[in-house]
Design goal:
The complex is a heterodimer.
Chain A lengths: L10 H4 L13 E5 L5 H13 L15 E5 L5 E2 L11 H7 L1 H10 L8 H6 L1 E3 L12 E3 L12 H36 L1
Parallel strand pairs in A: 1-2, 1-5, 2-4
Helix pairs in contact in A: 2-4, 3-4
Chain B lengths: L1 H8 L11 H39 L5 H10 L6 H10 L1 H14 L13 E2 L1
Helix pairs in contact in B: 1-2, 2-4, 3-5, 4-5
Classes of the chains: A alpha/beta, B mainly alpha.
Chain lengths: 188, 121
């Protein structure tokens, strides 16, 4: 685990408001956002932050675990969501990648008086370092996911793209082989 | 007499509703209606809360609520949800054995994971 020195920029923000949360007996779960789909990850985070994965859940008090999300800039979306819409996702990621996940999770939490407290339990970091290295952390394994089959048109397009890539690879190999062959003939 | 009773029921109300009879009368009537309705709603809410707790407890062991209850029904275990939620909170090992019974009767489903085609940012 890298230490705090690499993180001096945002230390204040990362540790903000920690004193207001009663941290007795809460676990620190680490979510790795690398290669995860945005919405599915956000729904899992929302269940953990609400405390709905504990059998001692009570709707009137906030008992969720602290959630740390790493690699926020490596989050993925399917389809063309990056460039759709007027306020594109790409611009937002350039501006502040943590806001994407934070908004996604915030909008999945129930709108009640506990929502702000739950928001305070979420810490998101764009890279993979965080200043909480000294706490007992627990990585979160995402539950297995069943993905639907690709639609026939998308599948055909992908196959065509693959074939094109293969052909280009072959051409590049042949070019190299051809050059080597000529050089050897000349020398011989 | 009536006023006295109404003010007694109006304790803790907001603003003039606890002091002025005209407003207090309306608010007290509404409060009694709400309490009638909520005596019935409370039973529903509590059952829903028990189900949420049982769901959380079983998911810790890899089974979801639906499959768990199905397995218990098949085995003719007639514990009700209130008791099951208490067991899941306070007696984790007994609960685990219940989950194992349910899983043996009715094996859970396995998920197939194919890496999806995603656009990386």
């Amino acid at each position: 685990m890298k230490m705090v020195t690499a993180f001096n920029g945002n230390m204040k923000k990362a540790a903000a408001g920690l004193r207001r949360i009663n941290l007795e007996g809460l676990r620190w779960r680490v979510f790795d956002a690398k290669g995860q789909v945005l919405g599915r990850l956000a729904s899992q985070i929302a269940t953990v932050v609400q405390g709905k994965d504990k059998p001692t859940y009570a709707p009137n008090r906030d008992d969720g675990d602290m959630c740390i999300v790493l690699n926020a800039k490596d989050i993925c979306v399917t389809g063309r969501k990056l460039t759709d819409k007027e306020r594109t996702l790409k611009d937002q990621m350039a501006k502040d990648p943590t806001e994407v996940i934070r908004k996604a999770v915030l909008r999945m939490l129930p709108r009640n008086k506990l929502r702000d407290d739950r928001d305070r339990k979420l810490r998101i970091f764009p890279g993979s370092e965080h200043p909480f290295g000294d706490r007992p952390l627990e990585p979160y394994v995402m539950p297995p996911r069943s993905v639907r089959e690709m639609r026939p048109r998308a599948r055909r397009a992908m196959i065509r793209a693959q074939k094109k890539a293969e052909q280009q690879q072959q051409k590049a190999d042949e070019m190299k082989k051809g050059k080597n062959g000529e050089v050897q003939e000349e020398s011989a | 007499m009536n006023k006295g009773k109404i003010f007694k029921l109006a304790k803790g109300f907001r603003g003039r509703a606890k002091n002025c009879i005209r407003i207090a009368r309306e608010r007290v009537e509404k409060a009694l209606q709400y309490s009638y309705r909520d005596r019935r709603n409370k039973k529903r809410d509590m059952r829903s809360l028990w189900i949420q707790r049982i769901n959380a407890g079983t998911r810790l062991h890899g089974v979801n609520y639906g499959n768990f209850m199905h397995g218990l029904m098949k085995e003719n275990i007639q514990l009700n949800r209130k008791v099951l939620s208490e067991i899941s909170m306070h007696e984790p090992y007994s609960f685990k054995s219940l989950v194992d019974i349910s899983r043996n009767t009715f094996p859970g489903n396995k998920n197939v994971v194919i890496p999806p085609r995603k656009v990386a940012i």
